[in-house]
Amino acid sequence: MRTTEDAIKLMQTLVRRRCVVALDALCEVLGTQSRMTVFRRLKGVGYFSSFSHGGRYYTLAAVPAFDDLGLWFYKGIGFSRAGTLKETVARKIDAAPEGHTHAELQRVLRVRVHNTLHELVREGRIGRERWRHVSLYVSARPQRAAEQLTGRQEAARMLAEAQRVLTADETVDILVEALRAAPAVPAPAFVAQSSALRDRQITARHVEQVYESYGLVPGKKTPDSTPSQR
């Protein structure tokens, strides 16, 4: 009969070689059919079970190279610092500055989380708000949820602003304001602060886009006349 030390060494060797293993492989290498024995050995050295694939895969605690989101994927099998899928989803939603939609979570976690979200809402661990045409999942804490809704609204506003296509008149107005600062091209933020542009909700990013189109570089001398567009 294998000693506990020998069993642990065999298990560690197997996991380090394969990175991720299923329960039956652990049973085989440990020479047992007892799930409790396997989990006792795993607990003794530290381990993670997968949040994907029904939690059927295991790895040693020292193996995963978790990313900034606390996730690690090996051949499509997902592991999380938080442990289970439910715990991972709950923590991510609470920590997200703008909450999360189902699609966003599915894209990050690479698994369907529809049922998990419903369970968490039913248990009162997260909240759900209507955001445009989709459900937005937020913290169960009212103040935090309000902050997340505000963050979502601000992000949507900034995206719409960045995607707005300037009209020809707006482009001309930006060039006029820039050339008024001759002999040098002013910083985009300075131009955007002019009353003529600020009232039209033209931002520094819009000014940068025009600068890029016309080859204008902040700090360089302005041309004698407004250049023709490329």
The Rg value, from CA coordinates, equals 28 Å
Reported for the largest beta sheet, the result is: 3 strands, antiparallel
Order of helices and strands: HEHHEEEEHEHHEEHHHHH
Strand count: 8
Give the percentage of residues in beta strands. Answer: 5-15%
Secondary-structure-based class equals alpha+beta
Helix content: 40-55%
Counting DSSP H or I runs of 4 or more residues, the number of helices is 11
Q: Describe the strand arrangement of the main beta sheet, using strand numbers.
A: 1-3-2
Overall pLDDT metric: 88
Entry keywords:
single chain, 230 residues, alpha+beta, three-stranded antiparallel beta sheet, 50% helix, disordered C terminus
Explain what this protein looks like in three dimensions.
Helices cover 50% and strands 13% of the residues. The chain has 230 residues and is α+β, with helices and mostly antiparallel strands. The longest helix has 22 residues, at 142-163. The N and C termini lie far apart (80 Å).
Could you give a short description of this structure?
With 230 residues, the protein is an alpha+beta fold.
